[in-house]
Design brief:
This protein is mainly alpha-helical and 493 residues long. It has 20 helices and three strands. It has two domains: 145 residues; 329 residues, Neurolysin, domain 3 (Orthogonal Bundle), CATH 1.10.1370.
Length: 493
């Protein structure tokens, strides 16, 4: 076999594997949006069967032979081969039986978590959570091969990142975040909260218009309602979900914009990479940078909220906010709430830090599943000064641990850090951006992100794609500077 033959064989195998991964992902989407409740156990078996097929393909001995024979020269081929080499190495460390059992248990666990959350019944979920934790510890140990199991799991979502790296990053962010939070909560100027009722149908229509404005391609996507908003798929089939609460339209609008950020990343990857190893987002941190910059630096900006204020009046009538400036302050109101996905930009990363410390302790065996609620509540009270009032506002609020996503949470804050850097560079390149945002048109900014980040897919490493886009290495400073300037102006600090 020639080196070119090896590359062609590798890529043919990879394309089929990627296609099957998309099928498995569609099963997951269906489970969260349309699947009947009684199908949960059967879906678990279906997911386990799919994982068995995928694991066999990811560990096919022929991959080792092809990888040994191949020689890639151009940047795209080099990136494809590196992704395949890394995937083969990782998959080969995990026994097939374990991979299938994780897929089966986490599929069923998701439904059990949702029921426990709706009933505020931690005890209903604990046996399943303990099972998931045990399986993920086993997987982490297999991947780590004597190293830190949590580091091995983090590497699945943010290649090259470790728990120590994350702890250092959080250590750099936390002091200024806490200091800003204390100044804000002690300020004389305090924006009013939004009150009233906002019809579901009108929310849904405006939500769809927001998705369109931010560049979502409806010919290759759809939006549905889910308990926990998410984005699913890649290439020509990228679906999002949102949620609607009539007393809180911001939840719907900003969940939609956030998920559109994820979806546009996937829709805008170079079509030549479709169904290949580099045909999706390069890491969850970079993915989160797109959703967070769409949601916050663009969607919650003074200019864009001015336009949104007009849309709210047009669709809901007078709703108790007097002016665009007051609306901007209300949209960005800082309060120590319970829910991460509803948290303001100042508190959001503190929510993530709590989860990082707890899940790292779980994977290291320093904390057990039946100790998690008590640990969560104590840490939340310490960090936010408020006692958790019920489990759905505490340890049961997120879906992630039920589906085994240990190591995923810190990528949210890494995404915020990346978004801060991208926003600084974007503003330097687009000095007149606010005029477009004030007209409800984020296209100049989303176009910049498409060209600088999204189209590259997995061609570059996570840090490299951000550094190339920004012209400097990613760091915490731009995010903290942005937060201090924005909230300093709102609160008169």
């Amino acid at each position: 076999m020639t080196r070119n033959d090896a590359y062609e064989a590798l890529m043919a195998h990879a394309r089929e594997t990627c296609a099957l991964e998309q099928v498995a992902g569609r099963l997951g989407w269906d489970q969260e949006t349309m699947m009947p409740r009684g199908a949960a156990e059967q879906r678990g078996e279906e997911m386990a069967a799919m994982e068995g097929v995928l694991h066999a393909r990811r560990t096919d001995p022929r991959l080792g032979d092809w990888l040994e024979a191949v020689q890639a020269t151009d940047p795209v081929a080099l990136a494809q081969v590196e992704k395949l080499r890394r995937g083969y190495s990782r998959a080969s460390r995990v026994p097939a039986k374990l991979a299938q059992e994780i897929a089966r248990v986490t599929s069923v666990a998701q439904g059990i978590w949702a029921e426990a959350r709706s009933r505020d019944d931690v005890a209903h979920f604990l046996p399943t959570l303990a099972q998931v934790v045990a399986l993920k510890r086993e997987e982490g140990a297999a991947l780590a091969q004597g190293g830190d199991a949590y580091d091995a799991l983090v590497d699945d979502y943010e290649p090259g990142m470790t728990g120590a790296d994350i702890a250092a990053m959080f250590g750099a962010l936390r002091p200024r975040l806490v200091a800003l939070r204390e100044k804000i909560l002690g300020a004389d100027r305090q924006p009013a909260a939004l009150t009233g009722s906002f019809g579901a149908d009108a929310q849904n229509r405006l939500s769809r218009d927001l998705a369109t404005a931010f560049g979502y391609d409806w010919s290759r996507g759809r939006v549905d309602i889910a308990v926990h908003p998410f984005s699913s798929g890649s290439g020509n089939d990228v679906r999002i979900t949102t949620r609607i609460a009539e007393a809180d339209p911001f939840n719907c609008f900003y969940s939609t914009i956030h998920e559109v950020g994820h979806a546009c990343y996937e829709q805008n990857v170079d079509p030549d990479y479709l169904l290949t190893p580099i045909g999706g987002g390069v890491s969850m941190g970079v993915h989160e940078s797109q959703s967070r910059i769409y949601e916050n630096q663009l969607g919650r900006s003074r200019a864009f909220t001015g336009w949104l204020f007009g849309q709210m009046r047009e669709r809901f009538g007078e709703f108790g906010v007097a002016s665009p400036e007051d609306f901007f302050a209300t949209v960005n109101r800082v309060q120590p709430g319970f829910i991460r996905t509803e948290a303001d930009e100042v508190h959001y990363n503190l929510h993530v830090m709590l989860r990082f410390d707890l899940e790292r302790a779980l994977m290291r065996g320093e904390l057990e599943a039946d100790q998690l609620e008590e640990a969560w509540n104590a840490r939340f009270l310490s960090d936010f000064g408020v006692a958790v009032d019920r489990p759905s506002h505490g340890v049961l609020q997120d879906v992630h641990w039920s589906v085994g996503l240990f190591g995923y949470f810190p990528t949210y804050t890494l995404g915020n850090l990346y978004a801060g850097c991208l926003h600084k560079a974007l503003r330097a390149d687009l000095p007149d951006l606010d005029a477009q945002l004030a007209a409800g048109d984020p296209a100049p900014a989303t176009g910049w992100l498409r060209e600088k980040v999204q189209r590259h897919g997995g061609l570059y490493t996570p840090r490299s794609v951000i550094a190339r886009a920004c012209g400097f290495e990613p760091e915490a400073g731009p995010l903290l500077d942005y937060l201090e300037a924005k909230f300093g102006a709102i609160y008169g600090l």
